[in-house]
Design goal:
The chain has 484 residues and is an alpha+beta fold. The protein folds into four domains: 15-104, Uridine Diphospho-n-acetylenolpyruvylglucosamine Reductase, domain 2; 109-227, Uridine Diphospho-n-acetylenolpyruvylglucosamine Reductase, domain 3, CATH 3.30.465.10; 231-351, Alpha-Beta Plaits (2-Layer Sandwich); 357-446, Alpha-Beta Plaits (2-Layer Sandwich), CATH 3.30.70. It contains 14 helices and 19 strands. The chain has a five-stranded antiparallel beta sheet with strand order 5-6-10-8-9, with helices on both faces. A hairpin with a 4-residue loop joins strand 5 (109-113) and strand 6 (118-122). The structure holds flavin-adenine dinucleotide. Flavin-adenine dinucleotide (FAD) binds next to strand 3, helix 5 and strand 10.
Amino acid sequence: MAFFFLDAYYIDMNTHDINILREWLGDKGIITNERQCAPYAQGWRGNTGKCAAVLRPTSTKDVSRIISYCARRKIHLIPQSGNTGLVEGSIPDDSGTQAILSLDRMNEVKDIDPANRSVCVQAGTRVSALNNTLEKYGLFFPIDISADPCIGGMIATNTGGARYMKYRGVREHLLGIKVVLANKHGSIIDAMIPLHKNNTGLDIKQLFIGTGGIFGVITEASLLLAQLPKQIATALLIPRDKNDMNELLISLEQKCGQSLSAFEGMSGNAIRAALKHSPSLTNPFGTDEIPNYAILIEITYDWEKREGQQSLDDELKLILEEVWKDSRTPLDNALVGAPEKLWALRHALSEGVQKSGNRLFAFDISFKRGDVMRFISFMEEMLANEYPELTICDFGHIGDGAVHFNLVLKKNSRKTKKKEYESELRSLVTDIVVNNYGGSFSAEHGIGRKNQKFYDLYTPEEIKAVTRAIKGAVAPIDIGAIKI
Ligand SMILES: Cc1cc2nc3c(=O)[nH]c(=O)nc-3n(C[C@H](O)[C@H](O)[C@H](O)COP(=O)(O)OP(=O)(O)OC[C@H]3O[C@@H](n4cnc5c(N)ncnc54)[C@H](O)[C@@H]3O)c2cc1C
């Protein structure tokens, strides 16, 4: 059997297409009005595309019908769940010919099984809505980020987040999946098997984790849940020298083990941007100067405090005192504080940085843990000399070797805002990450139009060939924003 990619050309949707799809999906199931389409066609960072229509199915069967119809009519679909992605994977290009397949009406939470610690959800369910429903069972889906994505998009990008150290990412929490393959039949794969252990051949769900929707549309998932933590303590640490941060991390891992759930780095520039943008935030440093670098750490216990046991805050203070006294660890100061307040600061960084300058060039990169600070120091020196118009506002999941390396074009900069400037900068930084440090050009945001160039450049030919062969065999219809 021969398979062909249908990516040679695409046609505009016409009134006949719209009428047919409206008949299947109902009035609420299709949007064609430009003003109503606009929010779906705009990405989180303000970048916009233009779509022919937004299709809003309510069932896997509907998704199958849409994919099959659009394949025959050569209408290019862009799957979209929460639209919080940061790499232009969930929005259409500006041709106006692509249609968004939105999962926003597929948001049912079903089959909560506390004994199995699992739940089945439709792919358009927001993680906040899922966790609100689960709270009364003492369970949660423990992938925590500063936005509110949906399960389908989280699977397609293998979302990591701030508590990856303890819980890992989506991959470790996906038990089963239902997907519609991108082929002319819109074939449905139902692998909603809520088993913790199952080694009976190809683990089909792996194909759809972190692959940006290139093989089809995820419509349902069976998720492994975690116990809601019963005791939580957080602190801000000020390192003497951020370049020795690994010593601090290792020391805390040795003292806290699996209870260390976060080790989040925040540069002074990023903290200042967040405090300025969100005046309602409490400045945890009080009247003191904002430090050059701070780390938010969290430890959690999944059990209630026992009688006679000291509070977790007190236990954390003891741990930090031990670390501080050890001359090998570079801890200068520490502040144990209320988790809501410290996390509010951490979660405000992204938006604060976004609003802080003329323009933001954001990189979601990762390294072996020992290399993160070496990279940042190298870039500080290099950019200060060669790109003085940029301010580095980095922060990130340092405990996992991941960093959101943000370059902000200063407000009064007379430097060009043109595309060539951005392109040069992106290539420069990415080249250093990949070639000098063996790092990743996309730690956790997945692949989208924004990093297509780097996928093409840095993905080994053999891996690209295998990806294309699998796609050609099972899901030959071109779908989504990326070309593999
Ligand atoms: C403030 C902020 C903080 C963030 N922090 C983090 C972080 O700490 N860690 C992290 O990993 N990410 C982070 N992100 C990125 C983003 O939230 C994640 O990539 C997110 O999980 C995407 O989910 P979504 O539902 O919004 O997907 P979308 O944005 O809708 O889509 C993302 C990609 O998945 C594809 N897709 C969507 N739904 C489906 C589906 N049902 N089937 C197949 N493909 C589909 C899309 O085509 C697109 O390529 C952050 C984003 C913001 C705005």
